[in-house]
TrEMBL record:
<feature type="transmembrane region" description="Helical">
    <location>
        <begin position="111"/>
        <end position="128"/>
    </location>
</feature>
<feature type="transmembrane region" description="Helical">
    <location>
        <begin position="178"/>
        <end position="197"/>
    </location>
</feature>
<keyword id="KW-1133">Transmembrane helix</keyword>
<feature type="transmembrane region" description="Helical">
    <location>
        <begin position="6"/>
        <end position="29"/>
    </location>
</feature>
<keyword id="KW-0472">Membrane</keyword>
<feature type="transmembrane region" description="Helical">
    <location>
        <begin position="148"/>
        <end position="171"/>
    </location>
</feature>
<keyword id="KW-0812">Transmembrane</keyword>
<feature type="transmembrane region" description="Helical">
    <location>
        <begin position="41"/>
        <end position="61"/>
    </location>
</feature>
<protein>
    <submittedName>
        <fullName>FTR1 family protein</fullName>
    </submittedName>
</protein>
<dbReference type="Pfam" id="PF03239">
    <property type="entry name" value="FTR1"/>
</dbReference>
<feature type="transmembrane region" description="Helical">
    <location>
        <begin position="73"/>
        <end position="91"/>
    </location>
</feature>
<comment type="similarity">
    <text>Belongs to the oxidase-dependent Fe transporter (OFeT) (TC 9.A.10.1) family.</text>
</comment>
<feature type="transmembrane region" description="Helical">
    <location>
        <begin position="246"/>
        <end position="264"/>
    </location>
</feature>
<dbReference type="InterPro" id="IPR004923">
    <property type="entry name" value="FTR1/Fip1/EfeU"/>
</dbReference>
């Protein structure tokens, strides 16, 4: 359970975004009777997936080559990068979700007119962002776990679930309200990101860059057991620890509170009811 749900959420959210992108591209080509171009799209998607996996493996490889202090600093930097990715991702999707299908179809139409390489490149670029974000988020979220088995199982399960959902959406077997889905997962991801930031701050303290490692904000170790099921759940998903430092808690609150408030404050232009996923893909 430790770190499973947090990584499952990351895999589900990022994977579904990528699945929606691919579904939109495939549906557009099928609808316009250009199935012959599908292999080029799948090639671009495959290269993006392979590069993302390789990037994730590279992060773990580099970590193993570093000294203790260097490793703590490396993990801190990647954690902060992951938080930036999550924050940018949830606000970008909130702003551009409604125009995503139209923009992708326009870019694909332009790429088709240019040639094969342009189609491959367009499909690659459409997916690689989610892929690299997923790899970075997985690396950062996995640092707090005792082993990589739980986080790896979580991210793989989330990605597989997103692929199944993407396929069901494509064949119109299910309908998902995008606004509800991305709002709920966005709020949860903000809390996951706050936990990742807290872990990054802890690494900076371990590396000696920030002070106050043993200056605890509170101590709940008397009743909070991180080895219990609820402790594993809260620790793995939100990085809840029994003795966090003052700086860790300041960073957690300073990030989570304003970001959640800004995320939940809907702009007037998108306050109307959300279109359902099938309409986004098909139109």
């Amino acid at each position: 359970m430790n770190a499973f749900l947090g990584n499952f959420l990351i895999g589900l959210r990022e994977g579904l975004e990528a699945s929606l992108v691919v579904s939109i591209l495939v549906a557009f080509l099928v609808k316009t009777d250009r199935r012959r171009i599908l292999p080029q799209v799948w090639l671009g998607v495959g290269v993006a997936v392979a590069l993302s996996i390789g990037f994730g493996a590279f992060l773990f490889y580099v970590k193993d080559l570093l000294t203790y202090e260097q490793r703590e600093l490396f993990e801190a930097v990647t954690s902060i990068m992951a938080v930036v990715f999550v924050t940018w991702m949830i606000f970008w999707m909130r702003k551009f979700a409604r125009s995503l299908a139209k923009d992708l179809r326009t870019k694909l139409d332009e790429a088709v007119s240019v040639g094969t390489a342009a189609v491959v490149a367009m499909a690659f670029l459409a997916v690689i962002r989610e892929g690299l974000e997923t790899a970075t988020l997985f690396f950062a979220a996995a640092q707090g776990a005792s082993t990589t088995a739980g986080p790896l199982l979580g991210i793989v399960t989330g990605l597989l679930t997103s692929v199944v959902l993407g396929w069901l959406i494509y064949v119109s077997a299910i309908r998902i309200n995008l606004t509800v889905f991305f709002t709920v997962t966005g709020c949860l991801l903000v809390l996951v990101a706050a936990g990742i930031l807290k872990y990054g701050v802890h690494d900076l303290q371990e590396a000696g860059i920030l002070p106050g490692l043993y200056d605890h904000a509170f101590d709940i170790s008397g009743w909070y057991d991180p080895t219990t099921w609820y402790g594993s759940l809260l620790g793995g998903m939100f990085n809840v620890t029994p003795t966090p430092s003052v700086i860790e808690m300041v960073a957690w609150i300073a990030y989570a509170v304003p970001v959640l408030l800004l995320f939940l404050k809907r702009p007037r232009s998108v306050a109307r009811p959300a279109a359902e996923t099938n309409a986004v893909i098909a139109n």
